[in-house]
Amino acid sequence: MKTISILGSTGSIGTQTLDVVRANGDLRVAGIAAGRNVRLLEAQIREFSPKVVAVWEEEAAKELKTAVADLDVKIMTGMEGLLEVATLPEAEIVVTAIVGMIGIRPTIEAIRAGKDIALANKETLVTAGHLIMPLAQECGVRILPVDSEHSAIFQCLNGEQPSQIEKLLITASGGPFRGRTAEELKGVRVEDALKHPNWSMGQKITIDSATLVNKGLEVMEAKWLFGMDLDQIEVVVQPQSVIHSMIEFKDGAIMAQLGTPDMKLPIQYALYYPERRYLAGDRLDFAKLGQITFERPDTEVFLGLPYAYRAAREGGSMPTIFNAANERAVSRFLQRKIGFTDIYEIIAACMDAHKKIEHPSLEQILEAEQEAYELIESRW
Ligand code: NAD
Ligand code: MG
User: How, if at all, do strands 165-172 and 243-249 pair?
Assistant: First the structure.
């Protein structure tokens, strides 16, 4: 029996994690945390019997308490609840499937409590990787990637030394707007941006995939996870999403991990590493697939990628500004308050206005986040 906790249990990664739990008989769920989906939380409590449940919103927590009054479960709210679920003594692994920088504090506290982290919440590493990676090492815990590209690299690395890597080749689908011009991007609607060609994911990451900000975040995530220099990380567009990423070694050999696009594989691999378990689902049929094609990313049109490299090169608090500006801009786009390409404009304006801090503490990261939010509030 392995016991886990899940931050973000009602989302795309969270529900697929519970699918993995359901399909295997030997995983137990100690705690779950989510934003406000009371109905789904109630169903999850009844099915998986967690001891503690954190609901971010106070009202939703009240409603949930009433709904599960017949059960022995502790319902908590806010950051206090998230931290409690992240540090439950029973849990060996914490799945960080929450979206956004809100995941930083729970992730840090879970590491301090000695939990291995199955990390989906990339925004946490992008903004606080310089704090999280050394802390994980100090506390002797593993950061197991759930993001499909990073899981692919992790799987290719099995038995190899990271020092033998020449470069990482992170694959990208190119998103729903691959091939469009900058002019054509201006008018795209929320509905169009939410139609990812290959993956079904939460709204924020789906928009990030359309802007290529997601790929930028993944470059920074890979830098921290595998201790790479930025110029060792290359993005390759592979529109069929069959190759999930690759490693080129010093001798020129390239290892790739392939498969149908299904997040349950990286989730399950992280939960059972180094063991591989049966996973139901479609298998790759190469004859049916016919071809796998490759392109360079269009960095003139999809500014998410070059802006991310800029933030990563400048380092310090700049990736926090990049990420926070993007989080707020995406939320405005989803509310139809700004256009698609305004996301780029907002990120650039926030980075231009920011005076970089070299080794930001957690407090300084959260201050930089606020700074970006305030600038956006005053101008958009
Ligand atoms: P989602 O929007 O589907 O789910 C987010 C979850 O976080 C929900 O359960 C929501 O209730 C919870 N949440 C949000 N704010 C919260 C708060 N303040 N307190 C408590 N819970 C809160 O998102 P997702 O697509 O599952 O993505 C989650 C993370 O995983 C993101 O960082 C994303 O980049 C990463 N990721 C997702 C995928 C994917 O296929 N969906 C792939 C790779 C990486
Ligand atoms: Mg990914």
Answer: antiparallel
Q: Tell me how far the alpha carbon of residue 380 lies from the centroid of ligand 1, in angstroms.
A: 25
CA-122 nearest atom, ligand 1: 32
| Whole-angstrom Cα Rg for the chain | 20
CA of 199 to the centre of ligand 1 (A): 14
Are 115 and 93 in contact by the 8 Å Cβ rule? The answer is yes
The residues with which 6 forms a beta bridge, in sequence order, are 32, 95
Q: Is the CB of 212 under 6 A from ligand 1?
A: no
pLDDT of 329: 98
Q: 291: which 2 tokens?
A: 């071809």
- pLDDT < 70 stretches in the chain: none
* Cα angle 245, 27, 57; round to 5: 85
* Ligand 1 center to 289 CA (angstroms): 30
Is the shortest distance between the CB of 147 and ligand 1 below 6 Å?
yes
Q: Determine the residue type at 203.
A: Q
CA distance 130 to 125: 8
**Predicted local distance difference test score (pLDDT) of residue 199:** 87
Sheet with 27-34, strands from edge to edge, namely: 74-77, 52-55, 27-34, 2-7, 93-96, 116-119, 143-145
H helical segments located in 275-334:
286-289, 304-314, 318-334
Number of neighbours of residue 351 by Cβ within 10 angstroms = 19
SS3 178: coil
pTM for the complete prediction? 0.98
Q: Is 261 in the pocket of ligand 1 (CB under 6 A)?
A: no
Cα(149) to ligand 2 centroid in Å equals 5
48 Cβ neighbours under 8 A, 6+ residues apart: 18, 21, 29, 32
**Ligand 2 ion: nearby residues, β-carbon < 5 Å:** 147-149
Helical ranges in the chain per DSSP H = 12-23, 38-48, 58-67, 78-86, 104-112, 122-139, 148-156, 182-186, 190-193, 203-211, 213-226, 264-272, 286-289, 304-314, 318-334, 342-353, 362-379
